[in-house]
Amino acid sequence: MAPKLLVADDEEILRMLIVDTLEDDGYEIDEASDGGEAYNLIQSNDYDLVLLDYMMPEMTGLEVIKKVRDEGKEEVKIMMLTAKAQKKDEEIARQAGANYFISKPFSPVELAEVVEVILSE
């Protein structure tokens, strides 16, 4: 069975790029265009990896992570994708419960390689 991923980003073009890149590797992918939608999908699905944009409407990626972790869902692997590339932003995301952190802009090839490594852990 193919690993199941959630890609949550309010920028449709970037979301499409990520989905197209990862679908080529055979992953099953759901999409969310805001934090509220991402949170609801996480509640009703078992994802192998969630890729969350930091800044989204409804709920930020950080708020989604905090809610998911506060509910005890430690097994959900979460990667934060963000243009907020300062070290303090990464520290804040990791303290909230993000397992991985990638700064935008990133190479789709690099992202695919990182996802493959994460899913093989």
Distance between the termini: 17 Å
**What is the overall number of helices?**
5
Structural class: alpha/beta
Tally of DSSP β-strands: 5
Give, in order, the helices and strands.
EHEHEHEHEH
- Rounded radius of gyration (Å): 13 Å
The helicity comes to 40-55%
Question: Secondary-structure blueprint of this entry?
Answer:
Layout: E1 4-8, H1 12-23, E2 28-32, H2 35-44, E3 49-53, H3 61-70, E4 78-82, H4 87-96, E5 100-103, H5 108-120
Parallel strand pairs: 1-2, 1-3, 3-4, 4-5
Question: What features would you describe in this structure?
Answer:
The protein has five helices and five strands. It is α/β, with parallel strands linked by helices and 121 residues long. Strands 2-1-3-4-5 form a five-stranded parallel β-sheet, sandwiched between helices. Helix 2 packs parallel to helix 3 (61-70). The longest helix has 13 residues, at 108-120. The two termini are 17 Å apart. The mean pLDDT is 93.
Summarize the structure.
Keywords: Phosphoprotein, Two-component regulatory system. The chain has 121 residues and is an alpha/beta fold.
